[in-house]
Amino acid sequence: MKEVGKIWMNGKLVPFKNARVHVLTHALHYSTSIFEGIRCYDTPNGSAIFRLPEHIDRFFNSASLYGMKIPYSKKQISDAIIKTIKASRLKQCYIRPLAYYGYGTMGLTPLKNKVDVSVSCWEWKMGESKAGKFSGARCKISKWIRIDSRSQPMQAKSAANYSNAALARVEALKAGYDEAIMLNNKGHVAEGSAENIFVIKNGKITTPPLSADILNGITRNSVIQMIKASGKKISEKNITVKNLLSADEIFMTGTAAEVKSVTRVNRTKIGNGEIGSITKELQNSFMDVVMGKNKKFLSWLKFV
């Protein structure tokens, strides 16, 4: 990672290298933090943040689900994001707002600790999300079960939830795959380690419902709206492993992943083993949206 520009910490822009926390920061020990992943794109009309208000709303909702009070308004966080992008002089980047219980007292209960907030951004490189863009990603159904929403709030984008996802991702990578697919405790398909999942069969598109212990992905929501706007039908219902393995096409969505194809699950080839036509169409349509080429969804872009 290039240490470029500034990071916003508790109301101040500080040099990238100086953005540090104490080793006894509560969140470091007990995962008491929530965050967002946001993209800023270099469009023909200038740098634009994709669906900023929706990300800010989810950021505050995640905090609320964990009983965490963010000491800034939504507008202040939005302004901080824009300031950080400008200070970093990046035309396109990945943006990470983070709220966490900081240094103060140790022990499981976090309430006596101050809630610290930071905003970081860095140059985006395709990296792990490359698999599925130019050739289909190879996915492994993980032995790790997606956390049940009765155990902790899966609608929150919290650090605690992602330890579960990291276990699945590492398992898949060590086995020679590109990504993991996680099932919930009922044996239904939930999502990838960091992406929502869609299945296409006979032209019909299906994605797991929010009740399947999945994150309410903003890219997921965007793609659902785009599918409906194109006149295609999409249903939200539980997907079995059998549905998954017999699909004509599978694709995943996420802030980092955007829209990526899956062409193999375990040892099963999906469709003809190549990126499907509907997935390709959605990949192209999504890029048109984020680059400001689709006027119908221009309101999703916040120009910096």
Features:
304 residues; alpha+beta; D-amino Acid Aminotransferase, Chain A, domain 2; 9-stranded mixed sheet; 8-stranded antiparallel sheet
CATH H-level superfamily title of the largest domain? D-amino Acid Aminotransferase, subunit A, domain 2
Q: Which architecture of the largest domain does the CATH hierarchy give at level 2? A: Alpha-Beta Barrel
- Overall CATH class of the largest domain: Alpha Beta
Largest sheet: 9 strands, mixed
User: Helical amount among residues, as a percent range?
Assistant: 25-40%
* SS strand fraction: 25-35%
The number of distinct β-strands equals 17
N/C terminus separation:
23 Å
Order of helices and strands: EEHEEEHHEEEHEEEEHEHEEEHE
CATH topology of the largest domain: D-amino Acid Aminotransferase, Chain A, domain 2
Q: What structural category arises from helix and sheet content? A: alpha+beta
Annotation field: number of helices: 7
Low-confidence segments, given as residue ranges, are: none
Shape: globular
**pLDDT averaged over residues:** 95
- Gyration radius, rounded: 19 Å
